[in-house]
Each structure stands twice: as C-alpha cells, then as structure tokens.
Amino acid sequence: MYDVEYLFVTCVNDILNYGTNLFKFAEIGLLYENKYDIVNKCFKAATNRAPFLPLKYKEENDQIFWNSPELVLEFVKHCPRTETFTENDIFQKVFEWVEGQCESRNIEINSKNLHEIFAPFEPFICFEKMDIKILTSTVYEYKLIPEERLLKCYHNHIIKVEKCYQEHFVGKNQSRMPNTSNAFIMESHMGHLRLRYV
C-alpha cells in the first residue's frame, strides 16, 4: 500500500508461514506483477509444506474461490517438481481445477469440455514423466492430449520397462532369459490405442 520495499519484503516472507492460503497470496502476487518473486515463493512453499492444497482459496467469509486461469498457468509453468512433488501431482491439481471450472460454469464434465478448459496447460505438462496408470485412465479417457503424444508416452514407458528388465534380469542370466526386444507394437485403430504382443 505504501510501496515501502522493506515492508513489502517482510510481508512476502511472512505470508509464506500461512500454509493454508498460499494460493490466495500467489493470486495477490499476480496483481503486483510478481514483485519480489512472491508468486514463485508461494509455489515453492506450497510444494514443500502443503502439497495437499488444491488450486483454490478461502476468503474471510469462508467463501471458496478457484484460482484464476492466469495463476494456474503460472503454476504449471513454474511450480518446482521434486522427488516428493512430481509431474503427477502437478497434473492432478490442474485436472481437479479443470473439473472445478466445469462445476462453476454449470457445464457437463465430459471429454469435450475438459479438453477445452485443459488445452492452455497441456504444452507445459511433461506427460512423458507421468505414471502410466494416470495416462491410461484420466488422460486417455478424456482425450486430454493428442493421440500422437500419448503414443509417444506409451512408447517411452515400454522402452523404460524393457531397459529395466534387461538390466535386472537378462544381464544376470543371459542364457535363460528370452530376448524381449520389440515385444510390443503400439497401434492406433479407429481412434483407439492398443498394445499388441508379437
């Protein structure tokens, strides 16, 4: 309010102790053009101390608000990924927010609406690093990413599994283990993905 640098910095550092409203403070930080890196500091604090927080916040009257699309985009782009807060967690929070937008707009939660709201965030999420379970359920079910990119994710997963298999089993007992190279072929038929063993 008074534009006193010391007071601003003190406030920024102090609000990081209020773990339950970090995304509200990040939203305020956007209004101040991320002065003193307040937005990213809130993201980092949320990742380290309150990874369970959804992308919404509570006002003094206990009314709940979902964060703005602008803040969610910043979250996807800049929220630090760690061993305990992975790309899976980033995706789950964003997808929860997308579902919340459908409810707020009173529109049906279906592939078309979810994909439309999710589209701006898709380029900044590294699906290649996500668990195959999430890819084959939520991502595939609601067609959140192009089929070609999903195929690439499956391909990378199979290569990773096969490499692990080769290192842990074949390398130890080469004579008794079959060669699994090219054991799976990914196919796209009539809009459906499938894996075929050959």
TrEMBL record:
Q: Which domain of life is it from?
A: Eukaryota
User: Under which name does UniProt file this protein?
Assistant: BACK domain-containing protein
Source organism of this protein record: Panagrolaimus davidi
